[in-house]
Amino acid sequence: MSPLLRGVAVAAVQVALIGAVGGKLLYDRASLPRAWVETAGVDPDLPIRGRYVTLYVTLPLSPESVATEREAACGRIELRGGQPMAVLEGEASGAANYVVPRRSTCFRRAGDGDDRWLLVEPVAFFLSEHARDPTLGAQPRELWVEVTLPRHGAPRPIRLGLKRAGGIEPLG
Fold this sequence. Notes:
The protein is an alpha+beta fold. It has two domains: 1-31; 34-170, no CATH class. The protein is 17% helix and 38% strand. It has one helix spanning 3-31; strands spanning 34-40, 52-60, 72-80, 83-91, 105-109, 116-119, 123-126, 143-148, 156-164, 167-170. Strands 1, 2, 3, 4, 5, 6, 7, 8, 9 and 10 form a ten-stranded antiparallel sheet that branches. The longest helix is centred in the N-terminal third of the chain and has 29 residues, at 3-31. It is globular and about 65 Å long. It starts with a helix and ends with a strand.
């Protein structure tokens, strides 16, 4: 096999892999539920960070979840009446013999006395080269992100929006 033919074969495999991942994400976006969720704890402006913002997704606790005294717990995200909610299944920290359930999402309390929970793993939203950073000057509880909610794992961000008096106004 000539070097040119090997190069073309490697390029074809890479294009197929990227196409498969892109196709899966497009299929998920079309078939899975979507929702706007509140964000918290936006990254500061760091020059080595790149063109993305790290967003902590904030969710209310579902009514049937027992509010634990722990600071962290695992569970899943469910869409109820068009609003995503954290459904807790167990406690994630403090118990030496506790094992995080497979395909489970972990949460931590948003603050003292708050009934909202943050995803432990933040989501990254990548900005285009010339886009303005929406986190600069944003007030708390103002920046929202539309996400795809897969059955297992973290939500996937689609677009950002600002909460205004009339609802959420998508950016860009």
